[in-house]
Amino acid sequence: MKEHMRRGDRPELMWGLGLTEAQKKQIESAVGPGFFLRNFPEGKLPWNKELNQAEKPSATWIPMKVWKDISDNRKEEYKRLEDTQRILIQDEQDDPVEMEQVLEQGFLTVITSPLTRRKVQDAVFRAKEVTSMYSDIYRMTEEIMLERELLARKTDQLLFLNRVLTTCTESLDPAIILANAKENLNMLLPVYELHAVFWQHQEASGLTNVEMFLDRKADSRQENEWMETLLDCAERMGGGTISGFQITHIDLVNRPAMGTASRNGRVVTMPLAAGSTHFGSLVLTVDSGVRMGKDEVDTFKAAANHLGLALRNALTFKEVKLRADHDALTRIYNRHTFDERLVYELKRRQRYGHELSLLMVDLDHFKNVNDTYGHKAGDMVLKEMGRILRSALRSTDLAARYGGEEFVVLLPHTSEADAHMLAERIRSRVQKAAFSFEDRDFSVTASIGVASLESGCFSRDEDLLLKADKALYEAKHNGRNMVVVSNGRDTTCSARQ
Asked: Which sequence positions are flagged as catalytic?
């Protein structure tokens, strides 16, 4: 770790703005001798003399309470340190802060006290990665200017590069970036299909998570062939055993095959890298009869570089948004996201009058699981609960962890009868799930409350959550492991298998 973080024999400079002595020692202990942390007391924060020095800090650690007291003018000067990544430190007594607010203020990330070794090192590695990414962007911008001079006579190729650059920045959705890329690459050579695979290697476990983007929906045989190709690419270039994958279709239309079988094309693999690390690959089917000159090959590679940066940014944004919107343990949405979506769906219902249903799910006697088998076993149950909800719902539905062992499921355009059927299906899957922890087998059950706003119903919309909560209370009160509908009907399920 220390060898990796050193920069020759000269420590890398970092600043601390108003760190406590304890915070300073925690950071110094975590980063090791490869870094020098210069801490400025609250009353003597760096200004003109320090800001004009040739050597700028690679990272600045700033407690939230100190940042709030800094003047706007001084904040702007700190933000102008382009090569410095700022890290916000949140104490337990500080008000919660949203990641979007942190990013808007120009911070790389926020870490909470206590400053453990893992938190500090993770923030430092992020800072170095972002700095490296910025360096790549500056370097590639210079390469583009040089290419424009060398390819002044190649107007079409210049237009092609400009279009690629423009469309790369139009969206932070990888599927949209890839769809635009296919259209743009067709300006240079015929591209019949464009697929992509990205991987994320977990050093601790040695496992690799994979995300695939298929050009479009196709029959199962064709999709399986492309999945095998992409997984093989990820396994060869990503390293480690693949632990799981997910698939997204760039174009949802199911069309006839346009690949090698019908067009006599050839498959081209384009690795995508950030710095020296490969994080993904584009896999294209192109016309085998096309031959490109050296300048066209260079242009093609330049496009791949820009696509790689855009896709890396999009994947990073997606991960940040996932962490902000989702519960870290269960990987379903968190309560904040549910509250926002509920307001949105209620407004839509007021406008269009469609049906809207809500399930409130609570794991029965969950405290006994933690007390008997330990909190790791409890976490295992909560993760499985998240998986059950994800697998049971449509893409338009929303499942969220409401708090502790309580979950909510929002069901737009769903009648009370259909919501009741879904609730019973979820309850049954929970009951049938078998758990084993440290050679001890156990099972859990769930109680579910169902509430609905039917089409044309004049009930107040704000009653929906209250009705579901009351139905859940009735299910718990009447013996648990059952589904209760808010109008009083119930289905007792504890005797069912």
From this structure: 405
